[in-house]
Amino acid sequence: MGFGEGTKWVTEPDTYVCKLTKETQEVAKEELREDESRRNTALEQMRDYIMRNERIENCRLDAQFLLRFLRVKKFSVPMSQEAVERYLLLRQVYHPAFNNLDINEPNMDELLSLGYIFAAPGRDANGRRVIINRPGVFDPYKYTNVDMCKIHGIAYETLMEDEENQVRGFSHFADGAGVGFPHITLFTPREAVRIVKNGERTIPMRHKEVVGINVPKKLQYVLDFGMSLVSDKIKKRVTLYENLEEAISKGMDTSMLPKEYGGKMPMKEMIELWRKEVMDARPTLLRNDKMKVRINMYSEKAREGAVSALKQGLGCGDLNSGDSTIHGLSGSFRKLEVD
């Protein structure tokens, strides 16, 4: 494959037909500056950038994919162009964790059945999907850090395919019960920093609210470290409660949560509905593996996912075509044996 004319892209340019509800179109206009004229112009500029960029070997060119970047960057085309390229590089640098996002793999199916991460059906009062994460059910002696990244990738990629989600954003609910030191040491501090920094900067999701309960007091220092890594914008959207009872007493809306957390639908039913959703998205997620960049055309720091490279951008100054060695965390993902 090559860039420019003659390349067979993962998906070809299509004619966009807006399927957003009228209410969501208003949100998109007010919060993201999106209207038909700006959208059409931005999509044309995004496609031209990708097709002319010799660093990008293959990519999706359909509007649904490109709009996730334009929307998260509020239709700043230069920022969206950099974001899509960073996303492609991230997938390649962290290859074991962000490729072959197959829910049919035994470990992925098991984590889904356990309810490690899933999205509740329907939408909350703000039109958002609610993502539920229960890290304590993740067995750090059985599963690897790659498994953890992949099951998150399956959830996020599935949800990002929906345009309503791209505009409305997401609410998160996490239950820290059962989390211990072995969970924390699945990643080294350096890996944690790079994953969090690259994730927030690169994964095109609008995180609107984060609620957490049952954070183990003995791991408060870990939470403090994690909070130090995220942007001030995200910090302001995080609310933590000692337990479910405190959260409910202080007005947390439980209507979208499983029955076990004060909602109406049993968790098992939610998980089965989510299973159907991710199964429907499976062909798209596997097809995304065809997207690639020419890894040797990026600086060593960019290939390693270094935070300094995030700040520097992906301009020509980052090119280092004389060094074709692939660096990055892909070589360091491993199963840790923790006493």
From TrEMBL:
SMART domains listed in its UniProt record: CRAL_TRIO_N, SEC14
GO cellular component: membrane
Annotated PANTHER family: ALPHA-TOCOPHEROL TRANSFER PROTEIN-RELATED, CRAL-TRIO DOMAIN-CONTAINING PROTEIN DDB_G0278031
Pfam families the UniProt entry points to: CRAL_TRIO (PF00650)
Location of the CRAL-TRIO domain: 105-269
Organism superkingdom: Eukaryota
Molecular functions (GO terms): phosphatidylinositol bisphosphate binding
Name of the protein in its database record: Similar to TTPAL: Alpha-tocopherol transfer protein-like (Pongo abelii)
Source taxonomy: Eukaryota, Metazoa, Ecdysozoa, Arthropoda, Hexapoda
CDD domains from the UniProt entry: SEC14
InterPro entries: CRAL-TRIO_dom, CRAL-TRIO_dom_sf, CRAL/TRIO_N_dom, CRAL/TRIO_N_dom_sf
